Amino acid sequence: MRHYIRTHMTIIQILGITGSEATGRLRSNVIQALKEMGTKAVVEHVTDVDKFIQYKINGIPALVLNDSVVLQKQVPNVEDLKILLSILTESTAKNFDMKKILVPTDFSNVSKDAFQYALELARIQKSEIKVSHVYHPDFDPQNPYLGESAKLQKDISEEHLKKFVAPAKKIEAAENIPVVTTEAIIGFPVEEIVRQSKEAGMVVMGTTGEKGLLETLFGSVSTNVARKAECPVLLIPGGVRYQKIRHILYASDFESANEGTLEKLVDFANMFKADIHFVHVNEDPNATNYKEIENKIFKILFRGGEPSFAFTMTKVEGSSVMEGLNDYALRHQIDMLVLVSPNRPFWENLFHKSVTKAVALNTKIPMMVLHP
Fold it and tell me: What burial class does residue 199 get, using C-beta atoms within 10 Å of its C-beta: 0-12 exposed, 13-18 middle, 19+ buried?
């Protein structure tokens, strides 16, 4: 079933009693302030007492912006509201920020592929890229740096980084590629990458590994970074080259579906004008909660006005969920798979049924992990 999804819209609610002079003035002032600012927003008048209790206000009228109470028992004038709304809408208008992309590297071919993919994203979104190499010689007995002085180890790492980004540096000015910086850090890869993710809008990394199911599919480092990072993580399988992102598949049990994560997904899709395919993963064919889940998603996505962006909703169920997702991805020419809140049990339940099909899917399609 095909629908259309809105672009991100600011939601403003005026909580107050019908007929109240103060409530009416606040609503009029908000509408006028938005008009003078040239800002589009949905303004709702809420009179439901249960909503007053939900927001824990102690007086009316109250102003709620994107589900956060910003003032109550006050009626600011238009000029004051313009200042307040400009600050608040600027800070909440974008849920997905790709101004800074972090690319961890171990200098493998897979990490080179991830770097090339990140360069294309950066070119499109005018992002900055930081390429980071984390090394810990005492932790890895196979490390060629073992026994060398700390300064020499750092020098060697920095030299490898220069060679790694050299091709991009050569064409940086000619092809308008954003700034690429590098950093070599001593530490444990997962911990350091997660720490650096606090200052990044996205982590883009390759997917290699040899231990366990998840590690075989995604790599022990990339799996743990995807689970723990402070920003979205885009996992790039080896050999994958960037192609226009037109169709995004959101695969989840939907337990973690909430307004915040869905708006991040919508923001990302809007960047590339891509369709979103919401696919409900359900291994229990007797489950009856799909309708409730669908209604929940609809309520979030349609809040704010007439939708204008294509999306579909469907479900995959039974004993071969991964095979179903794989077939769906192939039939609909999916360019990116998205998971939200990837707790380990869900990933294992998703992939343990058919490892062959899982590998077939994930060696072709980049996977983005969002966090609530």
Answer: exposed
In this prediction, residue 3 carries a pLDDT of: 47
Side-chain-side CA neighbours of 80 within 13 Å: the count stands at 6
> Tokens for 353?
């049924």
Give percent of the chain with pLDDT exceeding 90.
Answer: 26
Residue at token pair 């992309």: 101
Query: And the tokens for 230?
Result: 């402070």
Are 204 and 102 in contact by the 8 Å Cβ rule? The answer is: yes
Q: Which of 17, 199, 15 is nearest to 100 (CA)?
A: 199
Q: What phi-psi label fits residue 229: left (phi over 0), alpha (psi between -120 and 50 degrees) or beta?
A: beta
β-sheet bridge partners, residue 275: 247
Q: Considering only CA atoms, which of 294, 276, 280, 214 is closest in space to residue 251?
A: 280
Domains of the chain as residue ranges with CATH? 2-92 (3.40.30.10), 100-236 (3.40.50.620), 247-370 (3.40.50.620)
Measured over all CA atoms, what is the biggest interatomic distance in the chain, rounded to whole angstroms? 79
Q: What is the mean pLDDT of the chain?
A: 77
Geometric angle at alpha carbon 114, from 109 and 118, rounded to 5°: 145
Question: 313 pairs with which residues across the strands?
Answer: 278
CB 341 within 8 A of CB 261: yes
Strand order in the sheet with 68-72: 41-46, 10-15, 62-65, 68-72
- The whole-model pTM stands at 0.68
